[in-house]
Amino acid sequence: MTEPVLDVRGLRICFGSHEAVKGLSFAIHARETLALVGESGSGKSATALSILRLIEREGGAITAGEMLFGGDGTVRDLRNLGDGELTKLRGCDISMVFQEPMTSLNPVMKIGDQVAEVFIRHQKLDRAAALKAAGGMLEQVRIPDPLRRLGQYPHELSGGLRQRVMIAMALACRPKLLICDEPTTALDVTTQAEILTLIKGLQAEIGMGVLFITHDMGVVAEIADRVVVLKDGEKVEEASADDLFRRPQAPYTRQLMAAAPRLGSGSETRAPGSGTVLEVDRLSTRFGARSGLFKRKREGVLAVKGVSLTVAQGETLGLVGESGCGKSTLARSILRLVEPESGSIRLNGKALTQTSRPALRESRREAQMVFQDPYASLNPRLPVHELITEPARIHGLVSRRDQKDLAAQLVEKVGLERDSIFRFPHQFSGGQRQRLCIARALSAGPKLIIADEAVSALDVSIARQVTDLMLELQRTDGLSFLFISHDIAVVERVSHRIAVMYNGEIVETGPTSQVLNHPVHAYTRQLLSAVPSLRH
């Protein structure tokens, strides 16, 4: 066998006195995809950051081991390279797609300039040529209307589109090694399938090795040649993907496989109660309708087009559709975080459209939202006990004296330790930060939670715990959910009904089993056909 592109030997990583990775070894060859799987906090992302020598910026240190990068006859230990050599490697020979695109993109730079920067820096193109190449990369990763996107800023794109921009930047220089840290977390299943196909195609074309970090076992089955399973910083199993799915050896691997949601496994939800919590009637929202100093009218983009839906007490309505179809805009419009252009919204019988700000604020206590990007939702300067009790304090539900007790109850409810309330957001993994966002939403005692990709950043076992929590809250408190997700298997598990959104419109809705087993609309059938499945 040829020499590996990357050969990691005995890697140890510490954050202060905590050893996050404990003697990890693995190798990746050209045209090979190695999947690194495990729960949040198992050391997956720390390993990826160490390869690019970014771990020091996160407060970590490589205390032992070698990371030999080669594949072209020259072998270098990445651990010993200086800043200049590392700068040449990053983004050119070794590229990485990070888990949270909003924290990786510059919010004040246009998308085109950020993608073009890769070509200017590593291929020495002039700006015009670099922008043309950038447009080509956006088209290659299936971003609709790529030329228009070049002139937009990151906040104008959905989470899924931002992630595709990151993938375009990472693939621009056709690297020898691509590190993907949850690259399809924010993507709907059809786009995910396209991106996985794109990565495999480029891999075959240029001989790229891929380190693929994910909690989605269906994606592992789809893309991986070999799999390394991590638990608490240690390798518990390594095998070919075929062997792992047919004959998992470690008990922890079998636990991960059992927790993975499978489309067709059925719903665990109970019948909802009577009464309507949310009623949306012919809601439309337009972006870019006004601009300039005097707010002159422009036509803008109609992102939500006459949507109507209802959510009953104790019911979960699953909302699925591709990135950029308007799901998140609809969610924000319901709470008037984005002002709708027309239509009506009623929450527990109270009108939210044409409502005064004080009345709207009171109504928002009954409907809380869990956003897609957990890091952007949490103030990095505040400890957890202040962050997650803020909604309760705003609505006068808890005193300063009692907030720590409430915070401790909330973190335990979402599966974190009581003493974590004294830590700060950067001290948690991506999955743990999402659990903090869910705890924060629960603090105000809402009747409805709008969950926008609430479990997308979680590994399968933790996602299972969170959806179990949602189901328990419905049983005990009659809580309702509008559950937005690209993971249709998870949607099936928690939802009484499903609404399918395409190009700003609801194209199909009905009971979960009916929509999944007997889809009527062509787009629904396309979504279902793209869902990755575990091999047996």
Give a description of the structure.
The chain has 22 helices and 22 strands. With 536 residues, it is α/β, with parallel strands linked by helices. It has a domain of 254 residues: 3-Layer(aba) Sandwich (Rossmann fold), CATH 3.40.50.300. The strands form 5 sheets. The protein has a 6-stranded mixed beta sheet, sandwiched between helices. A 6-stranded mixed beta sheet has the order 18-19-20-15-21-22, with helices on both faces. Helix 5 packs across helix 7 and helix 17 packs across helix 18. It starts with 5 loop residues before the first strand and ends in a 7-residue tail after the last helix. The mean pLDDT is 87.
Write the layout of secondary structure elements.
Elements: E1 6-15, E2 18-28, E3 33-37, H1 44-51, E4 61-69, E5 76-77, H2 83-89, E6 94-97, H3 101-104, H4 111-123, H5 127-140, H6 146-150, H7 159-171, E7 177-181, H8 189-206, E8 209-213, H9 217-223, E9 226-231, E10 234-240, H10 241-246, H11 251-259, E11 276-287, E12 290-291, E13 296-297, E14 301-312, E15 316-320, H12 327-334, E16 342-347, E17 350-351, H13 357-364, E18 367-370, H14 374-377, H15 384-387, H16 390-394, H17 403-413, H18 430-442, E19 448-452, H19 460-477, E20 480-484, H20 488-494, E21 497-502, E22 505-511, H21 512-517, H22 522-529
Parallel strand pairs: 3-8, 3-9, 6-7, 7-8, 15-20, 15-21, 18-19, 19-20
Antiparallel strand pairs: 1-2, 1-4, 4-5, 9-10, 11-14, 11-16, 12-13, 16-17, 21-22
Main location: membrane
Catalytic activity: glutathione(out) + ATP + H2O = glutathione(in) + ADP + phosphate + H(+)
Pfam family, one: oligo_HPY
